[in-house]
Amino acid sequence: MDIDKIPPWLLALEPEDVTFLKNFVLKSGSLKEIAKLYQVSYPTVRLRLDKLIQKIQLHDRAEEPFTAFIKELAVDSRLDLETARLIIDKYRAEKEDAT
Asked: The whole model's pTM is what?
């Protein structure tokens, strides 16, 4: 497959997300099997999958790169939701003031 035909949402994923997705497919989508593979609980795997789904959905939305980046940080739990909201609100307000 040519690099220009790879979906942008797939290229935007972190390497560990791609590995998780590959393992998910190889285990036929069995979250129980993925939990065994990673030696974690089923709820932990479910949460990881939910976060991956959110990342893909965020990328599919036509949002500004900065806003999408902040939301992705929140999905990854690198930034709490309230702080993410404050940053995005401030960014949007400053952008509106500039126009």
From this structure: 0.66
Instruction: Note the pLDDT tens digit of each residue in 36-90.
Output: 999 999 999 999 999 999 888 887 776 788 888 888 888 888 889 899 999 999 9
> Can you spell out the DSSP letters for the chain?
--GGGS-HHHHTS-HHHHHHHHHHHHTTT-HHHHHHHHT--HHHHHHHHHHHHHHHHHHHS---HHHHHHHHHHHTTSS-HHHHHHHHHHHHHHHHHH-
Burial class of residue 69 in the structure, from the number of CB atoms within 10 Å of its CB (0-12 exposed, 13-18 middle, 19+ buried): middle
Q: Which domains, ranges and CATH numbers included, belong to the chain?
A: 1-61 (1.10.10), 64-99 (no CATH)
Predicted pLDDT at 32: 97
Contact yes or no for 45/38 (Cβ under 8 A)? yes
